[in-house]
Amino acid sequence: MQLRHSSAMAQTNPGLPHGDLLQLKRWNTPTIYNGWEQITKHDRTKTAINLEETRDFMPQMGPMVGSAVTLVIEPGNPEHPQTNPKAWNEYRHYVASVPGPKIVVVQDLDKPRVIGSFWGEVMSNTHRALGCVGTITDGAIRDLDEITNAGFKALARRLCVGHAHVCPVRWGIPVEVFGQRIEPGQLIHADKHGFLAIPHEDLPGLLEAARFMDSNECNTVIAAARGAAGLPAEQLLKKMEEASLAFRQAAQERFKKGGEW
Prior knowledge:
Blueprint: H1 18-24, H2 29-39, E1 55-56, E2 64-73, H3 80-83, H4 87-97, E3 102-108, E4 117-119, H5 121-129, E5 132-137, E6 140-141, H6 144-149, E7 153-156, E8 158-159, E9 170-171, E10 175-177, E11 180-182, E12 187-191, E13 194-198, H7 206-219, H8 221-227, H9 233-255
Parallel strand pairs: 2-3, 3-5, 4-6, 5-7, 6-8
Antiparallel strand pairs: 1-7, 2-9, 2-12, 10-11, 12-13
Helix pairs in contact: 2-7, 7-8, 8-9
């Protein structure tokens, strides 16, 4: 292959303190999105989110948070294993060189005719040992119970039975999965709803924004809805209108944006 790995592209961003990552993991991905949309200058309908449906095969594990390590595979092409016999070793060194926690983002060139899986019992345990918490792949996974037992979370297109001719083809480069481009080192928050690949410049204010918007909902629109049961419809609607206004005002004061409500 002309390009297997770019050390320049593989450099990770400065990231967030581990304590911040643990706090981000306490919320689901939609909650993090609610905070992110308040601080970003990007188009919230096109940037950062998966634009195609994903499937979370371990929803019981909750969200995963980590920096992207990227990989391209093509299990249907038997030439790749012969092209670079050292690919596996070189790829593992790349993964090991990136600070954790890490999420492996895999672009499968065979899609939509996915025929082989990179992920199974061996690869999940290997990557767990290398500091990876899970994967997002637009291809397939197999050995579902064994991957789950390894504590390795997977968002994927589907399950399959074989590995075909799978081997690392290119890594440490931008990839596109589920309609979204992801750069090596991008911080990713993912769960059963999909994923959010946060642009590097949006990292500093992300935790504070998510925390604020979650609290804003609890103090206004959610409180109004849960506290209005049994009221006459006119009073109920009035309380909800007042709560929505309070929600917008709080968001506007903090971020100069109105927010969802």
